[in-house]
C-alpha cells in the first residue's frame, strides 16, 4: 500500500526513493558535496526549500544524504518525516561543533554518546522528568571501530545541543559550566535527532568535527567546513 503522507510539505521524494541509512548534514551544500564526491549512481530526491537530498551507493551499499538546516526544530521536522513517512532506520548527523574542552583540537572528530540541551524540544514530548538523549550503541560502536581501524583522532562523550549560536556576552549564573560536567563540544541538533529516533525505535548517531574552539579561539574557514572534514564523512558512510 502506498504511503499517502508522501511527498511531505518539506521533502518531495516519492516512496522508496530514500535509503534506510541517511546522513544528515545541516548544510544542504555539504549534502551535495557528499553526494558528488562519495556516492555513485546518484539521484536527487529533494530540492524543496533548497534542502538538497540525494540517494546513491557507497561501496555497493544504498545510502542517502540530505541537509537538515540549523537547530533542533529544523532537524526535528526532517528526521520525523524521514523516520515515519520514508522508513529511515539509521540517521547519522554529520556536522561541526565548537570545542568546550581543552582536550579537543580543531579538526578532531567527536562521536556524541549523549546530548545535553538548552532547547525545549525534548520537554515537548511531555515526559514526567528529564530525558537523557543518547546515541544508538549499535551505530556508536561501529563508528568507533571504523575510526580505530583508520587510525583517526576521535573522542567519545557528551555534547551540548544549544538553541543559541551567539551566546550572551556575559554569564552571571556563577554555577557549574558544561565543560565542568565533562561536556566536550557544542552543536545544535543532536538532542532532537536522538529524541525522535528513540520515540520511534530507530537508530541515530551524531558525528561532528571540531570547527572552532571556545577554549583556544582557533577556527576553520566556512569553505573548509563545507567541503572538507572527509574523515567524518567516510566513517559515517561506513555505517550504511
UniProtKB/TrEMBL annotation:
Any one GO BP annotation for this protein: purine nucleoside catabolic process
Superkingdom: Bacteria
Active-site residues annotated for this sequence: 212 (proton donor)
Enzyme Commission no: 2.4.2.1
Entry-linked InterPro entries: DeoD-type, Nucleoside_phosphorylase_CS, Nucleoside_phosphorylase_d, Nucleoside_phosphorylase_sf
Catalysed reaction equations from the record: uridine + phosphate = alpha-D-ribose 1-phosphate + uracil; a purine D-ribonucleoside + phosphate = a purine nucleobase + alpha-D-ribose 1-phosphate; a purine 2'-deoxy-D-ribonucleoside + phosphate = a purine nucleobase + 2-deoxy-alpha-D-ribose 1-phosphate
Annotated site residue numbers, Important for catalytic activity: 225
Residues noted as binding a purine D-ribonucleoside in the record, renumbered to the chain: 10, 187-189, 211-212
GO-annotated cellular components: cytosol
Chain ranges of the Nucleoside phosphorylase domain: 22-234
Molecular-function GO terms, alphabetical: purine-nucleoside phosphorylase activity; uridine phosphorylase activity
Ligand binding (phosphate): 26, 30, 49, 93-96
Record keyword Transferase present: yes
Keywords in alphabetical order: Glycosyltransferase, Transferase
PANTHER family tied to this protein: FI09636P-RELATED, URIDINE PHOSPHORYLASE
Subunit structure: Homohexamer; trimer of homodimers.
Function as written in the Swiss-Prot or TrEMBL entry: Catalyzes the reversible phosphorolytic breakdown of the N-glycosidic bond in the beta-(deoxy)ribonucleoside molecules, with the formation of the corresponding free purine bases and pentose-1-phosphate.
Family: Belongs to the PNP/UDP phosphorylase family.
Name of the protein in its database record: Purine nucleoside phosphorylase DeoD-type
Species annotation: Hungatella hathewayi WAL-18680
